[in-house]
Amino acid sequence: MKSQIALSILAILALALVGCNSEQQIKDTIKKNPDLLIEAIKAKPVEFIDALNDAVKIAQKGEAKRREDSEKKRLEEAFEKPLTPVLRSDETYRGGGKDSPLVLVEYSDFECPFCSRGFKTVQKLLETYPGKLTFVYKHLPLSFHANAMKASQYYEAIRLQDPKKAFKFHDEIYENQRGLKKGEGFLKGIAKKVGADMGKLAADVNSEKVKKRIAEDMQEAEKFGFSGTPGFLLNGVPVKGAYPFSHFQEIIGKLKAKGKVSL
Fold first, then answer.
1. Which domains, from first to last, does the chain contain?
2. Rounded Cα–Cα distance for residues 219 and 233 (Å)
3. How many angstroms separate the CA atoms of 33 and 39, rounded?
4. Considering only CA atoms, which of 174, 74, 61 is closest in space to residue 117?
5. What is the rounded end-to-end Cα distance, in angstroms, of the chain?
6. pLDDT digits (tens, 9 = 90+) for 205-263
7. Model pTM?
8. 72: number of Cβ within 10 Å
9. Burial class of 18 by CB neighbour count within 10 A (0 to 12, 13 to 18, 19+)
């Protein structure tokens, strides 16, 4: 019996390792002899688990390498074919203007902890490239963050009053993000702190104008393949996630090297 099992296992290995045999052929062989793998596992269970764990690690490394290579390829393509976000006539700019050599657009969620990390990176970029980098904040509130959409609506309603107060609201939220768990009362408190007209805010916060603008941002983010937050476009080059400051500097360096920007 054992010799028969051994011979069958050797036959499976021969199919798998020698010649161009299809995956289906191997599956068919195992399907005809299902006890082969069971007997092999029973014979050396510890060795089997060790081998399985090693295989998982190898597979994970291979998948990580494939993702990294794919991301590098997409990044290189983006330098030649940058994405083009809509910069509306009433867009709110921070740092410089729409004609600055560097334009950084963020699609963000006020309740996302990674966006809080991205906020710090944006601050450092604005400090490092004063007058040369323009920042544009757009919305991508995720459905599983209970207060993200309402926070976006408050931001937009305040922006209708005064863009500077809107950015103060933006900063206060990210600097005190845990307070969002308190709900709309927290948002009202921040709005009062930045000097918003609370009567006008109440009239605008649920308006179609505010909701339409947020919906436009979300649709644009989806078009560019941003399904999570934060997502950035630096001169049209996409950055998916809260990458460190050095990653953005690397992109700026490549933009300069390719003659795409002059600083």
1. 2-80 (no CATH), 102-257 (3.40.30.10)
2. 15
3. 11
4. 174
5. 77
6. 999 999 999 999 999 999 999 999 999 999 999 999 999 999 999 999 999 999 999 98
7. 0.75
8. 10
9. exposed
